[in-house]
Amino acid sequence: MTATPTPRVTIKDVAARAGVSKGAVSLAFNHKPGLSEATRDRIFLAARELGWSPSLTARTLAGSRVDVVGLAVCRPARALGLEPWYMEFVSGVQSVLTEHSSSLLLRLVRNMDEEVAVQEAWWRGRQTGGSILVDFRADDPRVAMTERLGMPVVAVGHPSLTGGLTSVWTDDATAVTEAVRYLAALGHRRIARVGGAADLGHTSIRTAAFDEAAGALALAGAWQVATDFSGEAGARATRSLLTAAPADRPTAIVYDNDIMAVAGLSVAAEMGLRVPEDVSLLAWDDSQLCRLTHPTLSAMSHDVHGFGADVARTLFSVITGGEGGSHPVPTPVLTPRGSTAPPR
Amino acid sequence: MTATPTPRVTIKDVAARAGVSKGAVSLAFNHKPGLSEATRDRIFLAARELGWSPSLTARTLAGSRVDVVGLAVCRPARALGLEPWYMEFVSGVQSVLTEHSSSLLLRLVRNMDEEVAVQEAWWRGRQTGGSILVDFRADDPRVAMTERLGMPVVAVGHPSLTGGLTSVWTDDATAVTEAVRYLAALGHRRIARVGGAADLGHTSIRTAAFDEAAGALALAGAWQVATDFSGEAGARATRSLLTAAPADRPTAIVYDNDIMAVAGLSVAAEMGLRVPEDVSLLAWDDSQLCRLTHPTLSAMSHDVHGFGADVARTLFSVITGGEGGSHPVPTPVLTPRGSTAPPR
DNA sequence: ACTCTTCACTGAACCGGTTAAGGGAGTGCG
DNA sequence: CGCACTCCCTTAACCGGTTCAGTGAAGAGT
User: Does the structure show a pLDDT above 80 at B66?
Assistant: First the structure.
């Protein structure tokens, strides 16, 4: 990238116009004491007239804060776009960043090594003042990286995965248990779960919780399948679960996100099974999608937007040296809609 | 945001360790001529040993390029996340940015004034080296802003909306015409369109094209409704279109995005209408959603990922002073699936 | 033997801010 | 009148790179 054709106006120009030194302008714009009201006004007037605002780059270099928060998201090559969850999450993060007039540096990476490299480069290069880390897996290399760099971060994930990092998490185990109990209470004895990517930490947590809940309730059948979170994978998993003989197949299926649940719904339709009469479906991550299908999808819903906002707020507190403040967000609550009912 | 606890390693440290001057290190890391192979190697070795990588901030300040591309997206307050289209678009943009090892600065703004302010601050503050501008409307203030600032941008939108800016666009008019002709060819004489936000430029273009196509084909009925692109709005619009007496209601509906089409599909189901026997549905922006419903949704499909990549490539060419190179991307093509058929 | 190039590298200015130390004017006080 | 103390503001160093004129040594040309 090359130079700009624009004659840039700098602090020097403002200082000259206001008849003061660069330092004075700096003081004024940082609302620091040591300037008379009159001078301050003169400086702001000059700045306004010249259309000047301080260069964040120079400001950053000069050693003050960095008003950018980093977020790297792992996606396989040529991703088909992000899931609704991410969108809502990002939107929540942004709502808080905006209040602090800082921005989000977003990067899609292909694997963990790349993410580590990117985060390190961002931090080393003072591109970001901190990062939000998502999608933790077992023995996540980012824990060590963060500690080595001394970089302020907030980890989105259960403390068992995020080591000593400040983290904000959803109590997936409890939510899974609640989902299974709910279905069991409706009378389901054969329940399946179409899970997310097996290498993700929260998937393992949900898998373990599902097993435990199934055991505790002495279900007659409990299946779990791992996928990649895509609609296609969800459809495939559903198809294979439902092709068994009626007496052997699950009467209820829990999905790890809403895209897969939607896919499952259409697979059921395509196989001539009625929802919820023949099979109950329960989604996760309640986005607007769940309310658009027919029947509407029951879901474990949570305030993803609020989650993102909470994470961003926590990051700011970490950056400003506040108390770490790891904490869970409210556990997803079951929102029954049209896709769940007692088995026939 | 406050200081970092990390002892930062700078170019000076690397220079000292390699026994050369700062300038030499700079030359090496920018692959500029004037250094012997031996020295170059020594410098890289030293850098590797110290774990140093150049500070982008300092590099930017020193007047070379800025490796960040800005994208501000207008969303109403507390957005429910972005549409699939944006996700795919962003993902395509990223794929190209990654090759140039630059990043995306993403910001959700609430209105046009805020976007203008953000873009200006980014550019003035040398936060970005250029921007991608989306969602053009008539008399868009960003055209003037861009020219005033001399900022490199690529506008996503038809040249009639983007003034003299370098732009990349989809030929919406032709696509709409094709969609209407297709439905007419199936035998539909009463066609409706559930459009997007009325203030968006491409919505107007589609609206005009729809009117024209309807007129040219002398359709018996042609309706158009504006929405906000949300599933809820799509459902509402569909409901009101389909409540008319069978002889007076549309037999085919075109939607401006896929979320609304999915919503429309479930409204039809809820009203006891069969798709495509009673009503044909045609979506826009073919994301994976369209393949997940039952029946699958016919769509005007388009390589959104590739579109994003194209836009990013064009931006790089603008930034490096290449020929503007405004151009259209391939017109969306009709992908017939299960939701369209001749009327009963 | 002497000048001319070329090559490899250094030194210093500079980018646009921040910040600590310092200086001059005005006031209070002995 | 002299001294200390504020209050405002300036000066200059610094952040971590880039860039360019310039230097010194080796090799080429005559």
Answer: no
Q: Are residues B155 and B177 in the same domain?
A: no
Amino acid A121 CA to nucleotide D23 C1' distance, rounded Å: 36
The number of domains in chain A is 3
Note whether residue A285 is domain-resident. Answer: yes
Chain A interface test: which of B1, B50, B106 (most A C-beta within 10 Å): B1
How much is the pLDDT for A224? 96
What is the average pLDDT score of chain B? Answer: 89
Q: Which residues 36-55 on chain B approach chain A with CB closer than 8 angstroms?
A: 51-55
Task: Give the helix ranges, DSSP H, for B187-301.
Answer: 201-216, 231-242, 258-270
Q: Average pLDDT for residues A166-178, to the nearest whole number?
A: 96
Nearest-CA neighbor of A311 among A152, A96, A151? A96
Q: How far apart are CA A53 and CA A33, in angstroms?
A: 20
B222 belongs to a structural domain: yes
For residue B74, pLDDT over 60 is answered with: yes
Nucleotide nearest to B27 (CA to C1'): D18
Q: What is the pLDDT of residue A1?
A: 39
Arithmetic mean of pLDDT, B153-175? 95
Question: Are A292 and A212 in the same domain?
Answer: yes
Cα–Cα distance, A150 to B3 (Å, whole number): 11
Give, in Å, how far the C1' of D5 lies from the CA of A45: 32
**B31: contact with A, CB 8 A cutoff:** no
Identify whether A293 is part of a domain.
yes
Residue whose structure tokens are 């890289």: B44
Closest nucleotide to the alpha carbon of A59, via C1': C17
CA distance B257 to B263: 10
Domain that includes residue A38, residue range: 11-54
| Distance CA B8 to C1' D22 in A | 32
- The verdict on B266 and B183 lying in the same domain is yes
Q: Is residue B217 part of a domain?
A: yes
Q: Give the CATH number for residue A253.
A: 3.40.50.2300
Please state the rounded mean pLDDT for residues B110-138: 89
The H-assigned helical ranges of chain B are 11-18, 22-29, 37-50, 56-61, 84-99, 112-124, 141-149, 159-162, 172-186, 201-216, 231-242, 258-270, 304-319
Distance A46 CA to C27 C1' (A): 31
Whether residue A67 lies within 8 A of chain B, CB to CB, comes out as: yes
Any idea what DSSP says for residue B327? E
Query: B299-328 pLDDT, tens per residue?
Result: 999 999 999 999 999 998 888 777 768 999
Q: What is the pLDDT of residue A76?
A: 66
**CB B82 to CB A80 under 8 A?**
no
Render pLDDT for B91-103 as a digit per residue (tens, 0 to 9).
899 888 888 778 8
- Say if residue A178 is in the same domain as residue A286: yes
**pLDDT band of B5, cuts 50, 70, 90:** very low
Chain A environment of B230 (Cβ under 8 Å): 288
Q: What is the pLDDT of residue B76?
A: 66
Statement to judge: residues B223 and B290 lie in one domain: yes
Taking an 8 Å cut-off on Cβ atoms, the answer to whether B63 and A3 are in contact is yes
My answer on whether A188 and A156 are in the same domain is: no
Kindly list the distances between the CA atom of residue A112 and the CA atoms of A74, A81, A155, in Å, as whole numbers in the listed order: 7, 18, 15
Please check whether residues A144 and A34 belong to one and the same domain: no
Q: Are strands B103-109 and A103-109 parallel, antiparallel or unpaired?
A: antiparallel
Token pair for B278: 């009673």
User: What is the model's pLDDT at position A6?
Assistant: 54
What does the alpha-carbon distance between residue A95 and residue B86 come to, in Å, rounded to a whole number? 18
pLDDT band at A67 (very low <50, low <70, confident <90, very high): confident
In chain B, what percentage of residues exceed pLDDT 90?
Answer: 62
Q: Which residues of B in 21-80 have their CB below 7 Å from strand D's atoms?
A: 22-23, 25-27, 29-30, 32, 52, 54-55, 57-59, 61-64
